[in-house]
Amino acid sequence: MSQHTALVTGGTGGIGGAIVRDLARKGHRVATNYRDPDKADALRTALAAEGLDNVLLVPGDVSDHDSSAAMVAEVEAALGPIDILVNNAGITRDATFHKMSYQQWSEVIGTNLHACFNVTRPVIERMRERRWGRIVQISSVNGQKGQYGQANYAAAKAGIHGFTISLALENAKYGITVNTVSPGYVDTDMIKAVREDVREKIVAQIPLGRFGRPEEIAQAVAFLVSDDSSWITGSNLAINGGQYMGW
Ligand code: NDP
């Protein structure tokens, strides 16, 4: 298996942390961002305890254009050009639309969708020059089917699909594949924040009868960024316990 330089955004979180670990265990040179130095220290300590010493942590806010460019530059200066990019960082700011503030709208669009531009744009040119690359966006089942109280999040996550297929078209001839993974409900801090009675209602809608585990998303991402997925581009891999079975 070839070893590459990978940037995974949002590695201090549940799904991002699992992707970082999976790629690091496979021997890739992995980088991720942090905003909160305490969370970075906690991740460094956890990775060291797991024997993973090939992960670089750099500061970076993916909703900010300049900060993202600086993050990419720091990663490439330390580890070499980025071959694998996983746009994973994301947030929710839920409210029904008639009560949603502009701040709730713009923070979610900024972190989930503008971030795809902010982080991918400084990476893509050198990836095209090297004629090999893997890009994966983490979207959501709610970008496919919509969700009450999440007009901002569903809009951003659905936008990611359009971004993915356009980028896949533009870059196929340069050996770059671009795909989306759309998780259903995965047991991370994002879901732990949901009220217990709402969590129970969600689980009742999942045919496989439980929330997903971050590792179950990480394994799919690891496949999509590997040499084994060389003929998959512009696809959306739904991983949701059967909650949404559209085409
Ligand atoms: P977490 O809340 O556990 O982690 C989110 C990560 O994103 C954190 O590392 C967080 O860093 C980072 N982040 C947030 N905002 C920014 C920013 N502006 N700049 C840089 N990093 C930022 O969430 P999950 O692991 O659950 O979610 C990961 C992805 O999966 C998201 O895109 C989410 O929308 C998607 N998803 C999650 C589902 C779930 O059920 N959990 C379901 C479907 C999709 P910090 O610690 O600094 O906030």
From TrEMBL:
GO terms for cellular component: cytoplasm. GO terms for molecular function: acetoacetyl-CoA reductase activity. Residues 4-184 form the Ketoreductase domain. InterPro entries: Acetoacetyl-CoA_reductase, KR_dom, NAD(P)-bd_dom_sf, Sc_DH/Rdtase_CS, SDR, SDR_fam. Keywords: Oxidoreductase. One of its GO terms (biological process) is monocarboxylic acid metabolic process. Belongs to the short-chain dehydrogenases/reductases (SDR) family. NCBIfam families: AcAcCoA_reduct, PRK12824.1, PRK12826.1-2. This is Acetoacetyl-CoA reductase.
